[in-house]
Amino acid sequence: MSSVTAADDVPPVSETKSNFLKAYKRPIPSIYNTVLQELIVQQHLMRYKRTYRYDPVFALGFVTVYDQLMDGYPSDQDRDAIFKAYIQALNEDPKQYRIDAQKMEEWARSQTSASLVDFSSKEGEVESLLKDIAGRAGSKEGFSYSRFFAVGLFRLLELASATDPTVLDKLCTSLNINKKSVDRDLDVYRNLLSKLVQAKELLKEYVQREKKKQGERAESQKTNETISKCLGDTLYNPSFLAEWKA
């Protein structure tokens, strides 16, 4: 998954959105679809930057955001299918995203605050990946910072139980990442999560009300059927009742 360097190779945003809709044709509830459509536009712009290069921290960040967004989705199968359609619409590999995100999560769980930021002095698959990112970020070649990368860093800290705020400072320094940009984008992420929680709560209340209404309608229908059975279709005919009331 390397960067796209030729301008002719860059598809328009409309093509990416169209590919997503073609790959997943079922309707998506608006509470999820509105955010997904916004995210895919943002990620398209990231994906086709000249300096873009896929990396596992970015993958972890996106997977974290996606799973938070789609938490509570009615169907696990549909949630996975939407993820697949979304990533493939960007001409990337959804399996690779999941594999790399899981690998980063497992690594982070085995780290401490100290070992997390001291990756440059250690050997290992993830340590090598982080060294590569640091090198590219430091040289400004083949690295394009994004909000998903910031969320990926935050997730690493979270899984390593690194609660000291200075750990993020040190990690950003080790990776040659601008800490102010990370702070700004994490604020955006937290704000998004807060809005999603509120929106999902409203959706939950709406669904409960609708279920209650459906139950009441079903109960009413059941009562009507029982009355009809007991009294006979003729007696329960609406025109007969109208005459009776008259």
UniProtKB/TrEMBL annotation:
Keywords: Coiled coil. It holds the Pfam family ThylakoidFormat. PANTHER family: PROTEIN THYLAKOID FORMATION 1, CHLOROPLASTIC. This is Protein THYLAKOID FORMATION 1, chloroplastic. It comes from Camelina sativa.
